[in-house]
Amino acid sequence: MTASDRRPNILLITVDDMDARSPGCFGGPAGLTPHIDALAATGARFPEAHVVAAVCQPSRSAIMTGRYPHRNGAEGFEPIHDGVPVLTDALREAGYALGILGKVTHLAPVERFGWEHARDMAELGQGRDPGRYRAEAAAFLDTAVAADRPWFLMANMHDPHRPFHGSAAEAEKFGDDVGTAIPAPDLVPAVGEHPLPGFLPDLDGVATEYAQYLASVRRCDQVVGAVTAAVREHGGDRDTVVAFLSDNGMAFPFAKANCYLQSTRTPFVLVWPGVTTPGSVHEGDRFTMLDLLPTFCEVAGVPVPDGAGGSSLGPRLRDGAQPEPDRTVVTVFHETSAQGRYEMRCAQDSAHGYIWNAWSDGERQYRAENMHGLSWAAMQDSTDPSVRARREFYLRRAPEELYALRADPHALSDLATDTAHATVLDDYRERLRSWMTETGDPLLDRFEVEVLGRTAS
Protein backbone atom coordinates (compact mmCIF):
# COMPACT_ATOMS: atom_id res chain seq x y z
CA MET A 1 0.00 0.00 0.00
CA THR A 2 1.39 3.40 -0.92
CA ALA A 3 1.16 6.45 1.32
CA SER A 4 -1.37 7.98 -1.04
CA ASP A 5 -3.61 4.90 -0.79
CA ARG A 6 -3.52 4.68 3.00
CA ARG A 7 -6.11 6.48 5.09
CA PRO A 8 -4.77 9.55 6.95
CA ASN A 9 -3.42 9.11 10.45
CA ILE A 10 -5.17 10.95 13.29
CA LEU A 11 -3.47 12.50 16.31
CA LEU A 12 -5.81 13.79 19.01
CA ILE A 13 -3.97 15.82 21.64
CA THR A 14 -5.84 16.77 24.79
CA VAL A 15 -4.51 18.75 27.71
CA ASP A 16 -6.01 18.73 31.18
CA ASP A 17 -7.64 21.87 32.64
CA MET A 18 -6.08 24.50 30.36
CA ASP A 19 -7.82 27.84 29.97
CA ALA A 20 -8.70 28.70 26.37
CA ARG A 21 -6.58 31.86 26.53
CA SER A 22 -3.42 30.33 28.01
CA PRO A 23 -1.59 29.33 24.77
CA GLY A 24 0.26 32.21 23.17
CA CYS A 25 -1.51 31.61 19.85
CA PHE A 26 -4.83 32.28 21.61
CA GLY A 27 -3.71 35.48 23.29
CA GLY A 28 -1.80 33.99 26.22
CA PRO A 29 1.67 34.93 27.46
CA ALA A 30 4.10 35.30 24.56
CA GLY A 31 6.70 32.56 24.44
CA LEU A 32 5.01 30.34 27.03
CA THR A 33 3.74 27.68 24.60
CA PRO A 34 6.08 27.52 21.59
CA HIS A 35 5.11 23.99 20.57
CA ILE A 36 1.35 24.63 20.68
CA ASP A 37 1.93 27.89 18.81
CA ALA A 38 3.99 26.09 16.15
CA LEU A 39 1.24 23.51 15.72
CA ALA A 40 -1.34 26.26 15.28
CA ALA A 41 0.84 27.91 12.65
CA THR A 42 0.51 24.79 10.49
CA GLY A 43 -3.29 24.64 10.74
CA ALA A 44 -6.44 26.49 11.79
CA ARG A 45 -7.34 28.07 15.13
CA PHE A 46 -10.93 28.21 16.40
CA PRO A 47 -11.22 30.75 19.26
CA GLU A 48 -14.90 30.02 19.96
CA ALA A 49 -14.94 26.23 20.22
CA HIS A 50 -16.41 24.56 23.31
CA VAL A 51 -16.33 21.25 25.10
CA VAL A 52 -19.79 20.17 26.24
CA ALA A 53 -19.03 19.55 29.93
CA ALA A 54 -16.30 21.21 32.00
CA VAL A 55 -14.93 18.17 33.79
CA CYS A 56 -12.61 15.44 32.55
CA GLN A 57 -14.46 12.16 32.03
CA PRO A 58 -17.77 13.57 30.76
CA SER A 59 -15.90 15.88 28.36
CA ARG A 60 -13.75 13.08 26.95
CA SER A 61 -16.60 10.60 26.76
CA ALA A 62 -18.66 13.13 24.80
CA ILE A 63 -15.82 13.57 22.31
CA MET A 64 -15.41 9.83 21.77
CA THR A 65 -19.16 9.10 21.47
CA GLY A 66 -20.41 12.28 19.80
CA ARG A 67 -23.16 12.39 22.45
CA TYR A 68 -24.00 14.65 25.37
CA PRO A 69 -23.35 13.05 28.78
CA HIS A 70 -27.02 12.30 29.48
CA ARG A 71 -27.12 10.40 26.17
CA ASN A 72 -23.94 8.36 26.62
CA GLY A 73 -24.16 7.62 30.36
CA ALA A 74 -20.94 9.31 31.55
CA GLU A 75 -22.46 12.26 33.40
CA GLY A 76 -19.78 11.96 36.05
CA PHE A 77 -16.94 9.53 36.55
CA GLU A 78 -18.79 6.42 35.46
CA PRO A 79 -18.62 4.30 32.30
CA ILE A 80 -20.61 4.98 29.17
CA HIS A 81 -23.77 2.94 28.67
CA ASP A 82 -23.54 -0.50 27.10
CA GLY A 83 -24.20 -0.38 23.40
CA VAL A 84 -23.16 3.24 22.83
CA PRO A 85 -20.89 3.27 19.73
CA VAL A 86 -17.49 4.94 20.10
CA LEU A 87 -15.07 6.44 17.61
CA THR A 88 -12.55 3.64 17.99
CA ASP A 89 -15.17 1.09 16.83
CA ALA A 90 -15.39 2.79 13.45
CA LEU A 91 -11.63 3.29 13.15
CA ARG A 92 -10.82 -0.31 14.10
CA GLU A 93 -13.10 -1.62 11.37
CA ALA A 94 -11.17 0.54 8.90
CA GLY A 95 -7.88 -1.00 9.95
CA TYR A 96 -6.54 1.72 12.24
CA ALA A 97 -4.00 0.95 14.95
CA LEU A 98 -5.31 2.45 18.20
CA GLY A 99 -3.14 4.00 20.89
CA ILE A 100 -3.68 6.13 24.00
CA LEU A 101 -1.22 7.90 26.29
CA GLY A 102 -2.49 9.22 29.62
CA LYS A 103 -6.01 9.56 31.05
CA VAL A 104 -6.67 5.94 30.06
CA THR A 105 -9.16 5.23 32.83
CA HIS A 106 -11.05 8.44 32.09
CA LEU A 107 -12.65 6.68 29.15
CA ALA A 108 -14.59 3.81 30.67
CA PRO A 109 -14.93 0.95 30.55
CA VAL A 110 -11.35 0.89 29.29
CA GLU A 111 -11.77 -2.36 27.38
CA ARG A 112 -14.68 -0.86 25.46
CA PHE A 113 -12.29 1.36 23.47
CA GLY A 114 -10.03 -1.45 22.24
CA TRP A 115 -6.65 0.22 22.69
CA GLU A 116 -3.70 -1.73 21.30
CA HIS A 117 -1.12 0.45 23.02
CA ALA A 118 -2.12 2.07 26.32
CA ARG A 119 0.10 3.80 28.87
CA ASP A 120 -1.36 5.65 31.84
CA MET A 121 0.02 8.43 34.01
CA ALA A 122 2.22 6.29 36.29
CA GLU A 123 4.16 5.13 33.20
CA LEU A 124 4.46 8.69 31.89
CA GLY A 125 6.01 10.54 34.83
CA GLN A 126 2.55 11.08 36.34
CA GLY A 127 1.49 12.26 32.88
CA ARG A 128 4.06 15.07 32.96
CA ASP A 129 7.33 13.73 31.47
CA PRO A 130 8.08 14.80 27.88
CA GLY A 131 10.70 12.07 27.50
CA ARG A 132 8.33 9.27 28.42
CA TYR A 133 5.62 10.60 26.11
CA ARG A 134 8.07 10.77 23.22
CA ALA A 135 9.30 7.23 23.83
CA GLU A 136 5.82 5.73 24.15
CA ALA A 137 4.49 7.61 21.13
CA ALA A 138 7.47 6.34 19.12
CA ALA A 139 6.90 2.75 20.29
CA PHE A 140 3.28 2.87 19.16
CA LEU A 141 4.15 4.48 15.83
CA ASP A 142 6.96 1.96 15.21
CA THR A 143 4.46 -0.88 15.34
CA ALA A 144 1.82 0.85 13.22
CA VAL A 145 4.28 1.96 10.54
CA ALA A 146 5.91 -1.49 10.38
CA ALA A 147 2.47 -3.01 9.80
CA ASP A 148 1.66 -0.37 7.17
CA ARG A 149 -1.49 0.60 9.06
CA PRO A 150 -3.04 4.05 9.52
CA TRP A 151 -3.10 5.00 13.17
CA PHE A 152 -5.14 6.91 15.72
CA LEU A 153 -3.25 8.15 18.76
CA MET A 154 -5.02 9.93 21.62
CA ALA A 155 -2.23 11.69 23.51
CA ASN A 156 -3.53 13.09 26.79
CA MET A 157 -1.35 15.37 28.92
CA HIS A 158 -2.06 15.53 32.66
CA ASP A 159 -0.73 19.08 32.97
CA PRO A 160 -1.88 21.71 33.81
CA HIS A 161 -4.19 19.76 36.12
CA ARG A 162 -3.65 20.30 39.84
CA PRO A 163 -1.28 19.98 41.65
CA PHE A 164 0.57 22.77 39.88
CA HIS A 165 4.34 22.87 39.50
CA GLY A 166 6.08 24.36 42.52
CA SER A 167 3.09 24.04 44.83
CA ALA A 168 3.10 22.40 48.25
CA ALA A 169 0.34 20.12 46.94
CA GLU A 170 2.66 18.83 44.20
CA ALA A 171 5.34 17.86 46.71
CA GLU A 172 2.75 16.26 48.98
CA LYS A 173 1.09 14.22 46.23
CA PHE A 174 4.07 13.13 44.15
CA GLY A 175 6.88 13.19 46.71
CA ASP A 176 10.19 11.88 45.39
CA ASP A 177 8.82 11.83 41.83
CA VAL A 178 9.10 15.63 41.71
CA GLY A 179 12.38 16.45 39.96
CA THR A 180 12.99 12.85 38.92
CA ALA A 181 10.10 11.09 37.16
CA ILE A 182 8.39 14.48 36.96
CA PRO A 183 10.81 16.99 35.44
CA ALA A 184 10.54 20.69 36.13
CA PRO A 185 9.41 22.87 33.23
CA ASP A 186 12.21 24.59 31.36
CA LEU A 187 10.63 27.99 32.10
CA VAL A 188 8.93 29.08 35.33
CA PRO A 189 7.04 32.41 35.16
CA ALA A 190 7.48 34.76 38.09
CA VAL A 191 4.57 35.71 40.33
CA GLY A 192 2.88 38.75 38.82
CA GLU A 193 4.73 38.46 35.51
CA HIS A 194 1.49 37.91 33.57
CA PRO A 195 -1.95 39.47 34.12
CA LEU A 196 -4.60 37.37 35.82
CA PRO A 197 -7.66 36.21 33.85
CA GLY A 198 -10.49 38.69 34.35
CA PHE A 199 -12.74 36.28 36.24
CA LEU A 200 -10.22 35.99 39.11
CA PRO A 201 -9.72 38.63 41.83
CA ASP A 202 -6.33 40.33 42.11
CA LEU A 203 -5.11 38.80 45.36
CA ASP A 204 -1.64 37.63 46.38
CA GLY A 205 -2.65 33.99 46.76
CA VAL A 206 -4.36 34.00 43.36
CA ALA A 207 -1.31 35.54 41.70
CA THR A 208 1.00 32.95 43.26
CA GLU A 209 -1.18 30.06 42.19
CA TYR A 210 -1.64 31.46 38.69
CA ALA A 211 2.14 31.56 38.24
CA GLN A 212 2.31 27.92 39.35
CA TYR A 213 -0.45 27.08 36.86
CA LEU A 214 1.47 28.81 34.04
CA ALA A 215 4.57 26.78 34.90
CA SER A 216 2.44 23.65 34.46
CA VAL A 217 1.17 25.04 31.14
CA ARG A 218 4.79 25.37 30.04
CA ARG A 219 5.60 21.76 30.96
CA CYS A 220 2.45 20.65 29.16
CA ASP A 221 3.67 22.45 26.06
CA GLN A 222 6.93 20.53 26.29
CA VAL A 223 4.96 17.26 26.27
CA VAL A 224 3.00 18.44 23.23
CA GLY A 225 6.32 19.11 21.52
CA ALA A 226 7.62 15.66 22.44
CA VAL A 227 4.62 13.89 20.91
CA THR A 228 4.60 15.96 17.73
CA ALA A 229 8.36 15.37 17.36
CA ALA A 230 7.77 11.61 17.49
CA VAL A 231 5.16 11.95 14.78
CA ARG A 232 7.52 13.95 12.56
CA GLU A 233 10.26 11.39 13.04
CA HIS A 234 7.90 8.74 11.68
CA GLY A 235 6.94 10.81 8.64
CA GLY A 236 3.49 11.52 9.99
CA ASP A 237 3.59 15.27 9.45
CA ARG A 238 2.78 14.65 5.77
CA ASP A 239 -0.35 12.52 6.18
CA THR A 240 -1.64 13.11 9.72
CA VAL A 241 -4.65 15.10 10.85
CA VAL A 242 -3.96 16.70 14.24
CA ALA A 243 -6.54 18.08 16.66
CA PHE A 244 -5.49 19.90 19.83
CA LEU A 245 -7.78 21.00 22.67
CA SER A 246 -8.25 21.23 26.41
CA ASP A 247 -10.87 19.03 28.08
CA ASN A 248 -12.17 22.01 30.12
CA GLY A 249 -11.18 25.29 31.69
CA MET A 250 -8.57 25.86 34.38
CA ALA A 251 -9.14 24.45 37.87
CA PHE A 252 -9.81 27.80 39.52
CA PRO A 253 -13.04 29.26 40.94
CA PHE A 254 -15.56 30.27 38.28
CA ALA A 255 -13.94 28.05 35.63
CA LYS A 256 -13.68 24.23 35.68
CA ALA A 257 -16.76 22.30 36.85
CA ASN A 258 -19.16 25.10 35.86
CA CYS A 259 -20.95 26.44 32.79
CA TYR A 260 -19.34 29.84 32.36
CA LEU A 261 -17.68 30.91 29.12
CA GLN A 262 -14.26 30.22 30.64
CA SER A 263 -15.48 26.81 31.82
CA THR A 264 -16.09 25.25 28.42
CA ARG A 265 -14.31 27.36 25.82
CA THR A 266 -11.31 25.38 24.60
CA PRO A 267 -8.17 26.33 22.62
CA PHE A 268 -8.99 24.21 19.57
CA VAL A 269 -6.49 23.75 16.75
CA LEU A 270 -7.06 21.56 13.69
CA VAL A 271 -4.32 20.63 11.24
CA TRP A 272 -5.78 18.83 8.22
CA PRO A 273 -3.26 18.70 5.35
CA GLY A 274 -4.80 19.96 2.14
CA VAL A 275 -7.93 21.20 3.93
CA THR A 276 -6.98 23.71 6.64
CA THR A 277 -5.07 26.85 5.72
CA PRO A 278 -1.85 27.21 7.73
CA GLY A 279 -2.10 30.01 10.25
CA SER A 280 -5.80 30.65 9.62
CA VAL A 281 -8.16 31.84 12.36
CA HIS A 282 -11.88 31.02 12.24
CA GLU A 283 -13.44 33.81 14.28
CA GLY A 284 -17.13 33.38 14.90
CA ASP A 285 -17.11 29.66 14.12
CA ARG A 286 -18.88 28.46 17.25
CA PHE A 287 -19.37 24.74 17.83
CA THR A 288 -18.88 22.00 20.42
CA MET A 289 -16.53 19.05 20.45
CA LEU A 290 -19.44 16.82 19.41
CA ASP A 291 -18.35 17.92 15.93
CA LEU A 292 -15.00 16.20 16.38
CA LEU A 293 -16.20 12.60 16.00
CA PRO A 294 -17.94 13.17 12.63
CA THR A 295 -14.89 15.16 11.50
CA PHE A 296 -12.60 12.22 12.28
CA CYS A 297 -15.02 9.87 10.56
CA GLU A 298 -14.82 12.00 7.42
CA VAL A 299 -11.03 12.00 7.64
CA ALA A 300 -10.98 8.21 7.90
CA GLY A 301 -13.70 7.68 5.30
CA VAL A 302 -15.95 5.73 7.67
CA PRO A 303 -19.65 6.13 8.55
CA VAL A 304 -20.58 8.21 11.56
CA PRO A 305 -21.83 5.88 14.34
CA ASP A 306 -25.57 5.80 14.92
CA GLY A 307 -26.80 8.30 17.49
CA ALA A 308 -23.81 10.61 17.28
CA GLY A 309 -24.54 14.32 17.10
CA GLY A 310 -22.58 17.17 15.64
CA SER A 311 -21.41 17.62 12.08
CA SER A 312 -18.03 17.38 10.37
CA LEU A 313 -15.96 20.52 10.03
CA GLY A 314 -14.87 19.30 6.60
CA PRO A 315 -17.51 20.99 4.43
CA ARG A 316 -16.97 24.44 5.90
CA LEU A 317 -13.18 24.08 5.64
CA ARG A 318 -12.86 22.26 2.33
CA ASP A 319 -15.86 23.50 0.39
CA GLY A 320 -16.22 26.98 1.83
CA ALA A 321 -19.56 26.28 3.52
CA GLN A 322 -20.36 28.98 6.04
CA PRO A 323 -20.92 28.18 9.72
CA GLU A 324 -24.38 28.65 11.16
CA PRO A 325 -24.73 32.39 11.89
CA ASP A 326 -24.19 33.08 15.60
CA ARG A 327 -24.88 29.48 16.49
CA THR A 328 -26.27 28.83 19.99
CA VAL A 329 -24.06 26.41 21.90
CA VAL A 330 -25.42 24.43 24.84
CA THR A 331 -23.09 23.13 27.52
CA VAL A 332 -23.90 21.13 30.65
CA PHE A 333 -22.61 20.12 34.04
CA HIS A 334 -23.75 17.23 36.20
CA GLU A 335 -21.23 16.00 38.76
CA THR A 336 -17.86 16.83 40.32
CA SER A 337 -14.97 14.39 40.69
CA ALA A 338 -16.06 13.93 44.32
CA GLN A 339 -19.56 12.98 43.06
CA GLY A 340 -21.18 16.20 44.16
CA ARG A 341 -24.26 16.67 41.98
CA TYR A 342 -24.72 20.23 40.71
CA GLU A 343 -26.97 20.20 37.65
CA MET A 344 -26.31 23.17 35.35
CA ARG A 345 -27.22 24.02 31.76
CA CYS A 346 -25.98 26.92 29.64
CA ALA A 347 -27.23 28.32 26.32
CA GLN A 348 -24.93 30.91 24.80
CA ASP A 349 -24.03 32.68 21.59
CA SER A 350 -21.69 35.62 21.02
CA ALA A 351 -24.09 38.06 22.69
CA HIS A 352 -25.34 36.38 25.87
CA GLY A 353 -24.85 33.40 28.12
CA TYR A 354 -27.81 32.00 30.07
CA ILE A 355 -27.23 29.49 32.87
CA TRP A 356 -29.83 27.44 34.71
CA ASN A 357 -28.57 26.16 38.08
CA ALA A 358 -31.05 23.43 38.90
CA TRP A 359 -29.20 22.73 42.16
CA SER A 360 -29.38 26.27 43.55
CA ASP A 361 -31.97 26.62 46.31
CA GLY A 362 -30.47 29.45 48.36
CA GLU A 363 -29.16 27.07 51.02
CA ARG A 364 -27.03 24.39 49.42
CA GLN A 365 -23.36 25.30 48.95
CA TYR A 366 -21.21 24.41 45.96
CA ARG A 367 -17.99 22.46 46.48
CA ALA A 368 -15.56 21.35 43.76
CA GLU A 369 -11.89 20.72 42.98
CA ASN A 370 -11.49 24.25 41.63
CA MET A 371 -11.72 25.47 45.25
CA HIS A 372 -8.61 23.57 46.38
CA GLY A 373 -5.39 25.48 46.76
CA LEU A 374 -4.35 29.09 47.22
CA SER A 375 -6.93 30.99 45.16
CA TRP A 376 -10.08 30.02 47.01
CA ALA A 377 -8.27 30.37 50.34
CA ALA A 378 -7.28 33.91 49.37
CA MET A 379 -10.88 34.70 48.43
CA GLN A 380 -12.07 33.34 51.79
CA ASP A 381 -9.55 35.45 53.69
CA SER A 382 -10.22 38.66 51.78
CA THR A 383 -12.10 41.47 53.51
CA ASP A 384 -12.67 43.33 50.24
CA PRO A 385 -16.48 43.73 49.90
CA SER A 386 -16.47 42.94 46.17
CA VAL A 387 -14.45 39.75 46.70
CA ARG A 388 -16.69 38.73 49.59
CA ALA A 389 -19.81 39.26 47.48
CA ARG A 390 -18.36 37.24 44.61
CA ARG A 391 -17.32 34.48 47.02
CA GLU A 392 -20.79 34.26 48.54
CA PHE A 393 -22.42 34.21 45.11
CA TYR A 394 -20.12 31.38 44.01
CA LEU A 395 -21.13 29.25 46.97
CA ARG A 396 -24.91 29.41 46.42
CA ARG A 397 -25.46 30.98 42.96
CA ALA A 398 -28.95 31.78 41.77
CA PRO A 399 -31.38 29.54 39.88
CA GLU A 400 -30.76 31.61 36.74
CA GLU A 401 -27.82 33.70 35.53
CA LEU A 402 -27.61 35.90 32.45
CA TYR A 403 -24.50 37.66 31.11
CA ALA A 404 -23.92 40.07 28.23
CA LEU A 405 -20.81 38.32 26.94
CA ARG A 406 -19.53 40.96 24.54
CA ALA A 407 -19.21 43.52 27.32
CA ASP A 408 -18.80 41.03 30.19
CA PRO A 409 -17.02 37.87 28.93
CA HIS A 410 -15.84 37.00 32.45
CA ALA A 411 -19.42 36.82 33.79
CA LEU A 412 -19.01 39.45 36.50
CA SER A 413 -22.43 41.11 36.27
CA ASP A 414 -25.51 38.88 36.44
CA LEU A 415 -28.46 40.40 34.55
CA ALA A 416 -31.03 37.68 35.21
CA THR A 417 -33.10 39.81 37.60
CA ASP A 418 -32.72 43.02 35.59
CA THR A 419 -36.16 43.81 34.16
CA ALA A 420 -34.54 45.59 31.22
CA HIS A 421 -33.28 42.18 30.07
CA ALA A 422 -36.52 40.25 30.62
CA THR A 423 -37.09 39.70 26.90
CA VAL A 424 -33.53 38.49 26.41
CA LEU A 425 -33.92 36.14 29.36
CA ASP A 426 -37.11 34.66 27.87
CA ASP A 427 -35.36 34.19 24.52
CA TYR A 428 -32.51 32.15 26.00
CA ARG A 429 -34.84 30.18 28.23
CA GLU A 430 -36.68 29.10 25.09
CA ARG A 431 -33.43 28.21 23.32
CA LEU A 432 -32.48 25.99 26.23
CA ARG A 433 -35.94 24.42 26.37
CA SER A 434 -35.74 23.56 22.67
CA TRP A 435 -32.38 21.90 23.13
CA MET A 436 -33.60 19.95 26.17
CA THR A 437 -36.56 18.72 24.16
CA GLU A 438 -34.42 17.77 21.16
CA THR A 439 -31.84 15.84 23.20
CA GLY A 440 -34.22 14.26 25.70
CA ASP A 441 -32.74 16.01 28.73
CA PRO A 442 -34.17 14.27 31.84
CA LEU A 443 -34.56 17.65 33.58
CA LEU A 444 -36.88 19.06 30.91
CA ASP A 445 -40.05 18.68 32.99
CA ARG A 446 -38.39 20.40 35.96
CA PHE A 447 -37.22 23.25 33.77
CA GLU A 448 -40.66 23.78 32.29
CA VAL A 449 -42.33 23.78 35.71
CA GLU A 450 -39.77 25.66 37.80
CA VAL A 451 -38.52 28.17 35.22
CA LEU A 452 -41.22 28.48 32.59
CA GLY A 453 -44.12 28.03 35.00
CA ARG A 454 -45.80 25.37 32.91
CA THR A 455 -47.85 22.44 34.17
CA ALA A 456 -45.97 19.17 34.42
CA SER A 457 -46.73 16.80 31.53
TrEMBL record:
EC number: 3.10.1.1
Similarity comment: Belongs to the sulfatase family.
Domain named Sulfatase N-terminal: residues: 8-302
A GO term for molecular function: N-sulfoglucosamine sulfohydrolase activity
Matching SUPFAM superfamilies: Alkaline phosphatase-like
Protein name: N-sulfoglucosamine sulfohydrolase
Pfam families: Sulfatase
Keywords: Hydrolase
Database matches in PANTHER family: ARYLSULFATASE FAMILY MEMBER, ENDO-4-O-SULFATASE
Enzyme class at the top of the EC tree: hydrolase
